[in-house]
Amino acid sequence: MAKRILVVDDEPDMLDLATVRLKKLGYKIIEAVDAEEALAILQKDTPDLILLDLLLPKMQGDELCKKLKSDDKFKNIPVILFTASAIRTSLPEKIKEIGADDCIMKPFEPEELLGKVKKFIG
Length: 122
Hints:
This protein is an alpha/beta fold. Helix content is 43%, strand content 20%. The chain has helices spanning 12-24, 35-44, 61-69, 91-98, 110-121, and strands spanning 4-8, 28-32, 49-53, 79-83, 102-105.
């Protein structure tokens, strides 16, 4: 059975890039454009990994990550953040603070994405 990855990003190009690359490797991709849609999906389906944009409309990615990591149902799902924000210098602290498992800076190389995904779910 294919591993399932929930990709949460409000940028269509980022969703497409991640989806195309990961589907080629046999992963099943579930897409959400904001945190609310992601939460609705998570009520029905539990992915093996979540790729989460830090800057989202309505609810920010860090808030969603904290929410997931404090919930027994979701806390063991690895969360990899996508971010292009200017917090690069404080990123390690931010990741630790919100409970994320790793981070990828935008723009990213597809090989970096694939390497991080494989690190967590093979």
